[in-house]
Amino acid sequence: GEEEVEIGEELQEDESSILTIHNVTRAHAGFYQCMASNGIALPASVEMQLVVQFTPKLRKGPQWRKVASRGDGTTTAELVCQAEGIPRVDFTWEKKGMLIDLANPRYEERTAREGYFHTSTLRVVNVSAILDYAFFSCTARNSLGDDKLDIQLVSTNHPDPPSSFGLVSVTHDSVTLEWIPGFNGGLQQRFRIRYYWDQSISFMYVDVFPLDATTFTVTGLQPLTTYNFSVNALNAIGESGYADNGAVLTITTAGKVELDGDLLDDKTLAPSGLPTHLTVAFTVVFGVLLVLNSLGWFFGRKWKNRRDKTKAERDSAVNREKSEGDV
């Protein structure tokens, strides 16, 4: 493609060329183009694809580890297992450590492949709380190895807390935050940010929009103020605890400087303590004044010399007239 990769060596003998790549990784996979030229006509080229084989790797985020469904025998649950791998990846499913018999009409498997992504979906028909609320295991395997993921089938419930709650950026009146969603409890979930500061009477709450956003900017904050932020998830059944076991994220907003009615970030100040653009303006003005002062001195000095010369000539003429009168 368009990326450059480090290559081991290129060997050319007579009219053939061999490219050898050592310590191959997945980054080396892609299309390579070989060009040949003898300086007479336009170069000829041929393109070939390098396929790198690797062990299956399953996706294992929180959204892949739990599936929720009603256990009244009227609903169908879908457990999804997705792996990357080359060559072809095959899947096996277990429940409570026992291999699932896919001939049983209560279980159906569908597989799909797109590039090196392989997906297996296990459908559990007429979910029973007694029979099916359990741990299912998905194993992805090819000729190079395998990977395993445990998926828990549970009843619909309130969502799990988000995780990895952190700061993206901060200004004088806003804070941008991010997090990783937890399991949604089997229903559409949304997020809510809670914050307070030392002079607040009670907690402030902001509902995140759009619903599936995992990054959000809280606005309307005060400059140079320390705030404490938390985030949790909600669905139709209830709400989760706060992210990272209720940890509070403490952030202080940036300061502002007001000059001629304009608010400027304190980070735009020059070392002199003045805004950068004003420092530049003052520097230019000072330079102009210095030039004008130099020109004034030059022309003033020239005018003084001319004045002294004129006075000397006038005095010489007067002396000459006196001398002639004496004669």
From TrEMBL:
Pfam families, per the entry: fn3, I-set
Disulfide bond as UniProt keyword: yes
Residue ranges occupied by any Fibronectin type-III domain in the UniProt entry: 161-256
Keywords carried by this UniProt record: Disulfide bond, Immunoglobulin domain, Membrane, Repeat, Transmembrane, Transmembrane helix
Span of domain Ig-like: 56-154
Transmembrane segments: 278-299
InterPro entries named in the record: FN3_dom, FN3_sf, Ig-like_dom, Ig-like_dom_sf, Ig-like_fold, Ig_I-set
PANTHER family: CONTACTIN (PTHR44170:SF6), PROTEIN SIDEKICK (PTHR44170)
Protein name as catalogued: Nephrin
